[in-house]
Inverse folding.
């Protein structure tokens, strides 16, 4: 039925608009009790709960336990997934269990490395939210732990599993837009929630929140409900717009272009509107040089007066590929073989002579010979790249085959993104070696 629907949609949309067909479900087969992948959630905030809800849609996945530093989220986990769910403030109690195969890590950024390393050393496979790192020193340790323990680790930038990004990659590799020269990407928001001004529960207190455990390696300061529940607003726990949003754009760019990352970066911006105590900018612009010969420009704006929007545009010598919403559009503008004429200032006789010779060399092309200039590829209604990302992760957990976004890919994406913070803080251009994954 899904295939028939895709075919009919394609015929209705016409020759220049194509419906991308995808099977969002696993092949129909019984899943035995012993074939379930049993998972736990570490960090049950908005992203962690959202990830878990998607993960449980994949056949053969079962949630056994949840860890979080706020009692209210542990109680809500039982409301969502049943009173038998094991809950704890200390994720070490989860890692000690032999019946858990894999964990989802949805903690604040400053806990990503330690929770991932601890989980892999405990024999668990890991799905870790982006950005993979909070500090550059996190990356090598996570990569080496994955290699030493032979554990699967997938980083949660779901675009690398998207059928839209796969189509864009195919188009670019086919030469649809010629040589790639520039990539432009943006992610703009204009709401309080979009700017991380998340709601604080009425019972927030040192009794309901495990503040010392939340702080971990961060500076030891008195309890702050705002910093606990809105942690993205502070460098001590989050990575600003670069780690939250730029990293998605880098992941998509690297997947589509096959690049390992930029060699040079410069960023600017500022705290323009959300002057609420946060210490990260709400506007940031970055420019990046890639060794493949293209440049990347990124923008995040939390002060935008319009609606939230995001997109990626790849500009080549013969057209553009643009990803917006649930579609990929390719606009082919082949370079004309004609050099053109600038003869208006000559005598009429000379103009006629030059034009006659020009047309003998460059005959007029008939319209029917011209290729289709614009084509659009549309994902099915309800398509979820997050589902596909989890499906890929669990397939790797079962088969032990490589994931689509391992620790090396994740480090290169996050490392590139955090160059923005480094450049912004230093007020200068910074250099990065994407092969060795080191600041130069």
């Amino acid at each position: 039925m899904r295939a028939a629907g895709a075919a009919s949609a394609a015929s209705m949309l016409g020759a220049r608009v194509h419906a991308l067909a995808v099977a969002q479900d696993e092949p129909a087969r019984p899943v035995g009790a012993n074939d379930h992948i049993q998972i736990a959630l570490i960090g049950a905030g908005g992203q962690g709960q959202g990830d878990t809800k998607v993960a449980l849609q994949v056949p053969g996945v079962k949630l056994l336990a949840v860890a979080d530093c706020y009692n209210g989220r542990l109680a809500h986990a039982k409301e969502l997934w049943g009173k038998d769910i094991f809950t704890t403030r200390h994720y070490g109690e989860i890692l000690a269990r032999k019946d858990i195969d894999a964990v989802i890590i949805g903690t604040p950024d400053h806990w990503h490395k330690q929770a991932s390393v601890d989980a892999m050393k405990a024999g668990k496979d890991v799905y870790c939210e982006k950005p993979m790192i909070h500090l550059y020193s996190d990356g090598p340790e996570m990569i080496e732990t994955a290699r030493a323990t032979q554990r699967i680790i997938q980083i949660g930038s779901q675009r690398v599993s998207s059928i839209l990004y796969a189509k864009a990659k195919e188009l670019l590799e086919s030469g649809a837009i010629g040589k790639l020269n520039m990539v432009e990407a943006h992610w703009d928001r204009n709401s309080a929630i979009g700017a991380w001004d998340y709601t604080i529960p009425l019972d927030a207190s040192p009794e309901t929140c495990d503040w010392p455990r939340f702080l971990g390696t961060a500076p030891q300061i008195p309890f702050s409900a705002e910093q606990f529940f809105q942690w993205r607003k502070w460098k001590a726990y989050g990575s600003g717009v670069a780690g939250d949003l730029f990293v998605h754009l880098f992941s998509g760019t690297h997947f589509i272009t096959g690049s390992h990352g930029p060699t040079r970066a410069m960023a600017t911006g500022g705290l323009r509107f959300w002057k609420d105590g946060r210490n990260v900018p709400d506007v940031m612009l970055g420019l990046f040089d890639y060794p493949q010969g293209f440049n990347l420009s990124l923008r995040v704006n939390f002060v935008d007066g319009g609606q939230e929007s995001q997109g990626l545009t790849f500009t080549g010598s013969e057209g553009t590929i643009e990803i917006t919403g649930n579609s990929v559009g390719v606009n082919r503008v082949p370079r004309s073989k004609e050099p053109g004429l600038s003869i208006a200032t000559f005598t009429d006789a000379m103009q006629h002579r030059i034009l006659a010779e020009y047309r003998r060399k460059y005959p007029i092309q008939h319209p029917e010979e011209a290729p289709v200039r614009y084509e659009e590829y549309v994902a099915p209604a309800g398509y979820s790249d997050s589902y596909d990302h989890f499906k890929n992760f669990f397939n790797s957990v079962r088969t032990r085959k490589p994931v689509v976004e391992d620790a090396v890919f994740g480090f290169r994406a996050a490392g590139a993104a955090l160059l923005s913070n480094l450049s912004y803080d230093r007020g200068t251009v910074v250099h990065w070696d994407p092969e060795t994954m080191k600041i130069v």
